[in-house]
Amino acid sequence: MENEVPLIKVTIDGQEIRVPVGTTIMEAARQIGPSVAPPAMCYYKPLQGSGGKCRACLVKVAAGSEKDPRPMPKLVASCITGAQDGMVVENFTNPEVVEARKGVVEFLLINHPLDCPVCDQAGECHLQDFAFENGVGEKRFVEEKRTFEPEDIGDKVQLHMNRCILCYRCVYTANQLTEKRVHGVMGRGDHAQISTYIKNSLESDFYGNVIDVCPVGALTDKTYRFKSRVWFSKPVDAHCACEKCSGKVQVWYKGDEVIRVTARKNQWGEVEDFICNTCRFDRKKTSDWVIEGPSKVARNSVIAQNKYGLNQGKKPEFALNYAAKNFKGIDDARDYNQNLDEIKKSEDYKALMQKNDKFFSKEKSLK
Amino acid sequence: MANDIKILTEHINIPGIETFEVYRKAGGYNAVEKAIKKMSPDEIVEEVKKSGIRGRGGAGFPMGMKWSFLAKPEGVPRYLVCNADESEPGTFKDHYLMKNLPHLLIEGMIVSSFALGANKSFIYVRGELMYVVRILEKAIEEAKAAGFLGKNILGSGYDLELVVQPGGGAYICGEETALLESLEGKRGNPRNKPPFPAVKGLYQSPTVVNNVESIANTPWVINHGGEEYAKIGIGRSTGTKLISASGHIKNPGVYEITLGLPVDEFMNSDQYLGGIRDGHYLKAVVAGGSSVPILPANLFYKTANGEDRLMSYESLSDGGFPTGTMLGSGGFIAMDETTCIVRNTWNFSRFYHHESCGQCSPCREGTGWMEKVLHRIEHGHGTMSDIDLLVDVAKKIEGNTICPLGDAAAWPVASAIRHFRDEFEWHINHPNEATKPGAVYMGAEILA
Question: What is the CATH number of domain B235-336?
């Protein structure tokens, strides 16, 4: 049957899409667009076997399939669950999912050092985005955070284990991209850590890619360390004739200086082509590269701020015009010089306060 | 009801039963002969299905159904793996069974492997039980010498190699997919499901993972027939169950009970536990190993509807989680009024914190968080909001993890707060009294 009908219908947050058989819910949602795509902290499409660990992408399957429309009893990880024909998935529209996701944010942050002000990843950190979009602003964790001894894993890559969320992406990268496995996960539970066996340093032409796949600031570029905040630098697409890799990279400028080189990433923060260490760490002159033009940066990204004049002018003007137009329309014929005590005694005011009692309860209790 | 039927432990008291000769004389390996000579693999699966036996490892999934789910593609080997990585706090039945009756397990492994068409089967034994590994290996040698294992068993042309593999001592490796990972020589992280082991298990081949006790039941099923087996027990809880009883009872130990035995009789008759130690009374019971919800004494003896509770899968889970519990793996822990529930919950929580594999975030971070909060409450630094915090954290772990360890860590905490909230509150409101050694809160009275 599947051969005759290669496309199946999936409904995600009320939006229908037809995808090939075998597509995961996550991929189907990404085809619809970022408005329904579940967040992903560990899932990384280019890496085989990744996903299912962070539980950030949990969704509710309200109807399993056309044949068996029963809902799934538990929330499922959308990155590893295959879509079925007629499946109805609730993502941001389901309060249970939103609540579970708040929990995941909280769990990921309780032992995270929250040292964004000194973290090189800040500004392009998936955990920041994920927490900002799905989390709550307050913390309930008052205990001491779990910490690790700092570990040196080579002169190019900086490991900051306290920030790690154990997504296993770098482990898969090391397994699938490099010839011999250079590092892995040691220990278990919340003391599991990314480490090299017996204090080795990383050795391979492609190990630098662990920096790009890391969603947080656990693995950062030592040659870029503390050089600049991400939003002060400007990414430019460039390429070179590299014998080891595709040579397609993003070159980050601060002024005229190349401060770092990374792989190009797509909309979901996934590397398009893994690059070699020579490109990443050694080619830091403009003359090494053929510049293609400014990289596309999402408008809501902090990297786009104060750059690219196109976005700068229009929006505030439009907003100001709108505000001015509406301000003029306000009927200010009312008598606004009234005594405050008089207003408080008036029946209107009392009725309003009574009506909004619950909203003002805090204010009242202070009095 | 015939309560004295012993399926597993019938011959356990015969001296020398761990040797092949004595076991054979007592009727051992008859099931292998019958199965291999007279029955086809499908007939055995059918008998096991008829018996209605449910997995004894904790989840209680019908064993025959699990066997029938096994994918059978051509040219791909199939495996049977016996899960002997028993490490749930409070459960020690498999240890007892393997130590005393190694040949019963091996006999069960042979007939089960034959039924599933597996030519290589594994017994994954908990790493701490090295002496049991040696007992099993010796038993396998004896069985091989007698022609019940190895090439061409009993001249039937069926080959079976049985491998005993000690684990590294991680609780998580008792989860079936983590066990398979560990058996493959990898880090014992549970796999994402689907695919289930019945489709892609050990070395990406169809695999059945069964508990020791489940497999040890199969020789009896072969010898006496599945229908006979289904007559024992009550309702959908057929057969007998090993219960490892511990705690403040007069006769702790491993008991084989017929499922459906009234809880009151099991708890208080001299044949079984003999009641709580003199001068004390029952406060709470963990009925199936540390991961199942804890029950206070009144809800343990009677369900919320006022019916007498029975030792069976259905009766113990009557009332769901609000007022019920689970039979689980049969790790029965009775606690008298000198037990501090907060300390006990903290202890369980500490175990799960230690044993979480660290793969998925709710369990990795949540178990540690719960442990820290419980530690604080127990040591007199808790606040009232901590109780709600624990409930909320437990709720956010439960069901959101890859494997059931997250649930197992959340249930004891959630149930302890559900049934003993006053004790938690007392700990928080009276830190000075609560941190005195041996201080326990029991309603209005305080033991110190």
Answer: 3.10.20.600
